[in-house]
Structures are given as C-alpha cells and as structure tokens.
Amino acid sequence: MTQEEFRTLTEAGTVILDGATGSNMTKAGMEKGVSTELWILEHPDVLMDLQKAYLEAGSQIIYAPTFTCNPCGMKNFGKEKEVYDLNCRLVELSRKAVGDRAYVAGDITTTGKMLEPRGEMSFEELMEIYIEQVKALCDAGVDLIVAETMLSVDETAIAVEAVRQVTDLPMMCSLSVEADGSAYFGGTAWEAVETLQELGANAVGVNCSVGPDQLEGVVRMMKKVAKVPVIAKPNAGMPNITESGEAVYDMEPKAFARHMHKLWEAGASILGGCCGTTPEYIRELSAWFRK
Fold it and tell me: Which UniProt keywords are given for this protein, alphabetically ordered (predicted)?
C-alpha cells in the first residue's frame, strides 16, 4: 500500500478498523501472564476466526497480532532472538484470515519503559527495537504500520522515525490518553498530532484507556490541529474488575456505536475498537456509515 493509496482510502470516506484482540483471546481461554503473541501461534484458528469475523463485520484494516513482538517484549519469554520469525508467522495468520479483502497493518507498541533521563530506555535502544520489528513486518508483507497504545509523544516520535528509516509504507499512530487528553508518560493528544504529522505519520489519534463517551472533547482538539486523518479506537467503556481479576467492560455494542458516531462528528474519520470490543461492536459501528 502506498501513501497515496492510503490518502485515497481515507479521503473516500470513514475507514473502519478492527476491534480488540487481547481481550478476545482471554475469553477464548488464554491464561494470564503468558505472551499473547506466542499463545496465538499455538492457537492460530482462534485468531483467524476472530479476524474473519471482523472482516465480515466491516473492518477495512485488520491489525496483525504483533503488538509486543519486539526484542524487549519477547525477552520476557526467552524469545528475543526469534523476533523476525515470530512476526512473519503472525502476519501470515492475518493474511490467511483476510486475504486481499482488507489491509493488514503491522502492529507495534510501547515498551512500557520511560525514556532517559526520566527512565532507563535510551533513544538509541528504542530506535533499534522498533527498527528490528518494523523490518520483520515489512518483509512479512504488511500493507501499513500502526504504532498503538503509545504512552508519550516522544516515544511515538521515535517510532515514526524508525519506521521512516525502514519503509515508505503508510503509518498510523495512536496514543493511550486520559479523558483530558494527556498521555501517561508525557504530552497530549493534540501535541501528538502536531508533532507526528510533521515527522511523517499519515494518521494520528487515540486508542485504549477510556471509552468513546469520554473522548469527544479530545477528538475536537486533535481535529483543530490535524492535517492528517484523526483516529479513534477506544475501549468498550470503562472496565469493572471482578473478584477473579477479569476486566468486564460496561458499554454495549449499540451504545458504543452511538458514541463513536459522536466522535466522527467531532472529527475522527478512522474508527475502531480496543479492549472489550468484539466483531458485534464493529458491526454496529459499520452500520452507522451504511445508512
């Protein structure tokens, strides 16, 4: 996918992303404390069935399940030397699931570690981590790159720079923010838009952390400074934690879609769901734009 093709896609109308992966794997029996990526490779049909359901629900872009499949994330499971092979295998699952009926995005994310001088992660280390994963994703044949659930503007800027060192594929970026638009490790959603679009991001927005009912003002602020499409991929409301530690999300699919339509009115044009959402949420969301 070229950047011009991405621009044509986004200018043609609202783009529908997929919904959650991790929370649906948990529902399917994935244990706590394991690597989602490694679990998926052991249970490929679960992931492929989910992504086929997202496709049928209306998703135009499907995220490959490569979220934390980088040297830092895989080191926790003794697989840091296998990042290239793991990413290729995970992308292959998504490609098999959707064929050429949707675009497959290579998914990268935060390491969860703060950058120096506030934390232990150096610019050079983070750049190398992203470059290694992005090279694998590109060789695996993804159509675009997405950096999601990012925790600061600075680390996302490094991700964009890393991607641009490797490829000219389109890149989307979304940060996890509080209801007031502030990112957890620094910066705001609108600062992210201003910074990242100048560095070469093709779309910028928010995902995870809160529900769509809390993001209308944030989206309006992003839209005011945006030269690129604005992304909204929130959770299915706020989670309630059960006695067993399970997160249960409180917003039903129809309510989620209504609130997402308000985010569209506020200026978001690339829409999807994060934690707690299922294909039914994406089906209800897609229905708003087929009326």
Answer: Metal-binding, Methyltransferase, Transferase, Zinc
Task: Indicate the pTM of the whole model.
Answer: 0.96
Could you list the residues known to form a binding site, using ranges: 208, 274-275
Q: Using one digit for the tens of pLDDT, what is the confidence trace for 66-102? A: 999 999 999 999 999 999 999 999 999 999 999 999 9
Q: List residues forming the annotated binding site for Zn(2+).
A: 208, 274-275
Residue pair 280/55 in contact (Cβ under 8 Å)? The answer is no
pLDDT tens digits, one per residue of 16-26: 999 999 999 99
pLDDT at 291 over 70: no
Q: Which residues contact 64 (CB under 8 A, 6 or more apart)?
A: 90, 91, 93, 94, 104, 105, 106, 107, 137, 140, 142
Q: In angstroms, rounded to a whole number, what is the distance separating the alpha carbons of residues 165 and 38?
A: 28
pLDDT digits 0-9 by tens, 226-268 = 999 999 999 999 878 777 777 788 899 999 999 999 999 999 9
Helix (H, G, I), strand (E, B) or coil at 247: strand
Q: Are strands 144-150 and 103-109 parallel, antiparallel or unpaired?
A: parallel
201 torsion bin: left (phi>0), alpha (psi -120 to 50), beta (else): beta
- Per the CB < 8 A criterion, the answer to whether 222 and 186 are in contact is no
Question: For residue 142, which of 103, 97, 96, 200 has the smallest C-alpha distance?
Answer: 103
Structure token pair of residue 258: 């209504």
pLDDT (0 to 100) of residue 239: 77
Pair of tokens at residue 40: 């998926």
Tell which residue, 264, 248, 255, has the closest CA to residue 284: 255
* Rounded CA separation 53/288 (Å): 18
Average pLDDT taken over every residue of the chain? 96
State yes or no: cis peptide before 170, omega within 30 of 0: no
Which two structure tokens, joined as six digits, stand for 255?
A: 């309510």
Q: How many residues does the chain have?
A: 291
